Amino acid sequence: MNRIRDRKTLFVYTVLSIMFIMVLGVLFVQVAKHYVIQAYEEQLNYDSQFVSQDIDLNQTDLQSQLDYYSEALPVDLILYDEANREYLHTFTSTESKFLNEVLGEELSNNTKVIDSHLLQSVRLNDNTVITLVSEQLPIYYLNTTLWSVIIVLALLVGIFIWSLGNRLYENYVTPIREASKTASELSEGNYKARIHDAPYGIVSELGQSINKLARNLEYITAKYENQNDRLKTVVNNVESGLLLINEKGLTRLANQAFVNYFSNQDDIVGEVYYDVIENQALNEALQEVIFMERKKQVTIETDRGHYFEVYLAPIWNDQETWKGVVVVCHDITKIKQLENVRKDFVANVSHELRTPITSIQGFVETLLDGNQHDEEIINKFLKIIDKETRRLNTLIKDLLDLSSIEKDDFTLTKSYFSIQDLMSEVNLVMERQLEEHQLESNLDVPEDLEIYADYNRLYQVVLNLYSNAIQYTQLGGKIEWNVVQEDGFVHFNIQDTGIGIPEQAQDRIFERFYRVDRDRSRQTGGTGLGLSIVKHIVEAHGGTIDLQSKEGEGTSITVSIPQLL
Questions:
Q1: Do 49 and 130 meet the contact criterion of CB atoms below 8 Å apart?
Q2: For 33-92, how does the pLDDT look when each residue is reduced to its tens digit (9 = 90+)?
Q3: Are 162 and 14 in contact (CB under 8 A)?
Q4: How many CB atoms lie within 10 A of CB 378?
Q5: Which CATH superfamily is domain 411-562 in?
Q6: From CA 497, how far away is CA 477, in angstroms rounded?
Q7: What pTM was estimated for this model as a whole?
């Protein structure tokens, strides 16, 4: 578009130049014509004075004198006798028409122009007038010649201006426009823009300078972007939340972790911190650091239940001028959860140990109080002490097993064994409890199914699941075992028709000491650690546990163990 516009401008300039030459040509033609006519007039005046002084009207042969003057001078003559209305002339017969035009004119001493001829009349006496008619003036030839020269000159000037304009356009206007366009692109951030095919001279130097500037800007920008990308990569991959606020309270840097923890917006850079941070406690801590200009450490809990240890520190430059605040947020949710687990564990263990110990201590004190007791009461007390002692021993054993399984150096002693042998051994151990609870038990296990696993730990898993199913199934209920191999896993599924597990308790059923029915668990000697042990053993084998239960209808638990690992 600019190229077409510039061509139009050049065309207009060329036309104006030609028109200027033409106007000058008109003026020149008029001036030349004036000087030509003036020269002929002077010559005609001189000739008319000569003829008027030299002619002799007293001679009878006036025609001969006229012919003589016509041949000697570049003029034709007309001698007119006004009294007799007679005239003599030197015109040929072919010039009769022009002669009549001359005779039709009112003759006077003034010079006239008729059909490119000059007429000069001189009165010789009262009745006689002689008129000299010059040869035809070369006006047409003069006009044709001059206009030809002017037109050719105008064309040459137009061609010269057009050629010069094109040359200037190609060598200067186009490169300068290209340089301007490139500079605009550079100012807009396109550092790959370049000037190509720059001509010689100062414009070439300009193009080379701009290209050099563009390369330097591209290099600096690429270097800055690489550093910025590395910084962003490092910052965004830091699990701790990072935030940088300048002295005006605007966020200048925030990693994704901080945005996920404390803001609902995707991009908070460039915003005022209290407009984008959703946590009121963090905003108050920031305000305190900004106003007091000193470090602060605070523990913050979010609405989602996460805990953060937040460190806030003011930023100072080399001139000891305050420039903002840096915030580092460490997620301590897991630490808090571990603390809670530890507290709960200590509390639960203390509670579980206190109950049997208190019971044993009470009965022992009763037996040792010095009073006489009959044999039946003593045996009853001793049985209770034996039961509580066994329960205490079971609890300690489960705690030791759980502690051993949770150690980092815990290893499984794996071997190939028949799953039917395992299930038959567990079923044999549980026969007495099944009979006491009047429960029906069915085992569906393929005979040739083997697995590569830790026999004793898997025995412990099946035993705990079996024991829980018996414990929470009413008299006359039913328990079914189904073991199948599928997709490289052996699936141990146990279903009972027991009391079931409430939906709100299903997510916590594998926690330590968690019981759905605490009174019933204590009556049967449960410790609340069985399912937690099951979960850890299954996970150590690389397996999974699936629980499905409906309160009042029963529970189905599926343990999936890799057949070969």
A1: no
A2: 778 778 877 887 888 888 878 887 777 788 888 888 878 888 888 887 777 777 777 877
A3: yes
A4: 13
A5: Histidine kinase-like ATPase, C-terminal domain (3.30.565.10)
A6: 6
A7: 0.43
